């Protein structure tokens, strides 16, 4: 009975431990395809943080803006969008599904997009170091130069992605102010157009100049009227009232009075088209132009400040450690795989042995 138990125990040890470990060892050292790793690390700098007079890190306050940007970049690197670009530029899918690689290491040729992405995330990894604010990259492929090329392309696309983020943030911040400037510019141009049309219609540049000209005309007419009246008074003692000379002089005086009256009506009369009425319209137009000009200048100033603020918030991708070129294959980690498999196999063997012994004891 003891001999039988010993034989069963040896058989269990052989089946559950020796055979699996020998099989795994043979696979790892003979069939498993070497994978070469290329690594790099980057840091995102924000212009606003560079210009800040206070170093908040001394107080234990991290740059949350930079952390957020790095996490966004991490999501981009792990996205289907970047995977499609890698496949189109470097034929990544073809490399991963190369039949020269062993069955367990390579990607299935008919793998779906989701399976391809899952395989990609197993070979291309990113790790965010919150303390150092670094994003670390790791790429594993079946060729060491190819690993470095893939990582270089990822860094290149990451820079393009950051540039697009800058462009999107700047455009969203500036779009409102640019629209305001454009709108106020159009309104100001319309008001200036109304002013030119008003000046052209009434044939003057300024009501002030027109008023001065009319006042001067009235002064000349009143001076001429005074001379005519003085001349009429001096001749009345010499000529009869019905004489042609006196009648002509009275007609001239009447004409001068009509001209003066017309000039006064044009200057300050209540009729539409008088200088006072035109002056009111002119001042209303110029006041609107002045207001629209102030609004236009204020919008220009706001746009300039928004551009400065947008420039201060620009992000820059800094490569701390460039892509490395592996000297040797570190993956798969054969000793680690074999030791781990051995520990698991031993656990299974001991569980099976204890279970079998318990069954025999109660049999």
Can you give keywords for this protein?
single chain; 363 residues; alpha+beta; 4-stranded antiparallel sheet; 11 helices; 4 strands; 71% helix
The quaternary structure here is single chain
Low-confidence stretches: 49-64
Kindly report the average pLDDT value.
82
Helix tally? 11
Written account of the structure:
This protein is of the alpha+beta class and 363 residues long. It has two domains: 31-174 and 312-361; 200-309. The protein contains eleven helices and four strands; from the N terminus they run αβαααααββααααβα. The protein has helices at 2-31, 47-51, 64-77, 80-90, 92-96, 113-123, 144-202, 207-236, 244-268, 275-312, 334-361, and strands at 36-46, 124-129, 134-141, 315-321. α1 (2-31) runs antiparallel to α11 (334-361), α7 (144-202) packs antiparallel against α10 (275-312) and α8 packs antiparallel against α10 (275-312). The longest helix is centred in the middle third of the chain and has 59 residues, at 144-202. The chain is rod-shaped. 12% of the residues are buried. Residues 49-64 have low confidence and may be disordered.
């Amino acid at each position: 009975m003891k001999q039988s138990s010993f034989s069963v125990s040896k058989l269990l040890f052989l089946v559950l431990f020796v055979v699996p470990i020998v099989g795994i060892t043979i696979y790892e050292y003979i069939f498993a395809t070497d994978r070469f790793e290329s690594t790099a690390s980057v840091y995102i700098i924000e212009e606003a943080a560079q210009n800040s007079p206070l170093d908040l890190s001394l107080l234990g306050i991290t740059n949350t803006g930079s952390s957020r940007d790095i996490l966004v970049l991490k999501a981009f690197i792990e996205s289907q969008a970047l995977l499609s670009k890698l496949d189109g530029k470097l034929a990544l899918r073809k490399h991963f599904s190369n039949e020269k690689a062993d069955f367990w290491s390579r990607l299935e040729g008919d793998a779906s997009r989701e399976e391809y992405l899952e395989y990609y995330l197993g070979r291309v990894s990113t790790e965010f170091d919150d303390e150092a604010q670094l994003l670390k990259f790791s790429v594993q492929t079946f060729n060491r130069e190819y690993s470095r090329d893939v990582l270089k392309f990822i860094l290149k696309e990451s820079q393009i992605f950051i540039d697009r983020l800058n462009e999107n943030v700047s455009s969203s911040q500036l779009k409102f102010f640019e629209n305001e400037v454009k709108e106020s510019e159009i309104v100001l141009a319309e008001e200036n157009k109304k002013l030119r049309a008003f000046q052209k219609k009434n044939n003057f540049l300024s009501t002030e100049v027109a008023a001065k000209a009319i006042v001067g005309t009235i002064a000349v007419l009143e001076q001429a009227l005074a001379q005519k009246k003085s001349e009429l008074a001096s001749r009345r003692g010499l000529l009869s009232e019905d004489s042609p000379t006196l009648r002509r002089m009275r007609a001239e005086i009447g004409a001068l009075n009509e001209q003066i009256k017309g000039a006064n009506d044009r200057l300050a009369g209540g009729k539409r088209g008088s200088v006072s009425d035109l002056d009111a319209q002119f001042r209303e137009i110029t006041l609107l132009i002045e207001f629209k000009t102030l609004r236009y200048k204020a919008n220009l100033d706001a746009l300039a400040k928004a551009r400065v603020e947008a420039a201060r918030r620009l992000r820059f991708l800094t490569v701390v450690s460039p892509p490395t070129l592996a000297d040797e294959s570190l993956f798969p980690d054969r000793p680690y795989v074999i030791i781990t498999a051995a520990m698991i196999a031993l656990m299974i063997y001991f569980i099976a042995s204890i279970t079998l012994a318990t069954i025999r004891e109660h049999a």
